[in-house]
Amino acid sequence: MSATASTGTTMRAVQLDVWGGPERLVVRDVARPVPGPGQVRVRVEAASANAVDRRVREGYLSAQFPLPYTAGSDFSGVVEAVGEGADLPVGAPVFGALWPTSGAYAEYAVVDAALLAVKPDGVSFEQAAALPVAGITAWVAVVDDGQVRPGQRVLVQGAAGGVGHIAVQLAKQRGAYVIGTASAANHDFIRDLGADEVLDYRSPDLPGLLADLDLVIDGVSAAGLAAFYPKIRRDGLALSLFDPPLPPPAGIRAQLVATAAIADGPVRPRLAALAKLVAGNQLTVAVTASYGLDEVATAQETRVRGKAVIIP
């Protein structure tokens, strides 16, 4: 993937002409976007690598995205141009999500101002870029759908991942007893985030080690989520972060935390609340790897602890 340096009317962007594997990603010069009414153009300082971006590249929701497709769902940067009616000024440091559109893996992005929040002092552009998709998904799972209360037992499958490591912290802040699963190499990381108990996701009888769960948040697989149904208390909830879960037995609920939830409800207040926690050292956003635009394919195919970011 390569492209020449951009000019005043163009920009470098990571695009797809055909859905498929990482080899389909191409960096090229494209026209610099112009903000419409209610929109702003942001000079991108950092963007985030998400599982959903990889799935979209492979054709997930392909009917929603025309080709050529500029990849990337969330980012941070500085407002450079403002469309009519947009309520963010030129020069404002911002972060947010482009979902249900795309275009974060580029030097500039145009987005509805309502999907952005002002980045507070004390939060880096890298942290801010890593927060929108993972943070709002975790917020919806723990706060909105899960409605976690003190004393509840919460299992987070894939607790070292982008959504998982934030969900662990949000559930703990709400007074839950939090159990996280991850590889042995990530156990100390999850304990440091506040988990009360950490289990190896490779354990052959992982469900057998658990009981009396009020909420399961599964960032691994919808099929695997069903193995925990017998361990969930009556009126408990199982949440899948990827695909619709298998039907649960009577007495418990199971549902998908859809990526579409990112753009549902009050996006800016959610982003502001999450960033305030980060700025106040009450929430850790673990950015553990960074890549350039020419390395997006590697970023999408590499599993990291916490989050990886793209620096244009």
UniProtKB/TrEMBL annotation:
Source species of the chain: Amycolatopsis jiangsuensis
Family annotation (PROSITE patterns): QOR_ZETA_CRYSTAL
SMART domains: PKS_ER (SM00829)
Gene3D superfamilies in the record: Medium-chain alcohol dehydrogenases, catalytic domain, NAD(P)-binding Rossmann-like Domain
Limits of the Enoyl reductase (ER) domain: 20-310
Name by which UniProt lists this protein: NADPH:quinone reductase-like Zn-dependent oxidoreductase
Pfam families associated with the record: ADH_N, ADH_zinc_N
Keywords for this protein: Oxidoreductase
Molecular-function annotations in GO: oxidoreductase activity; zinc ion binding
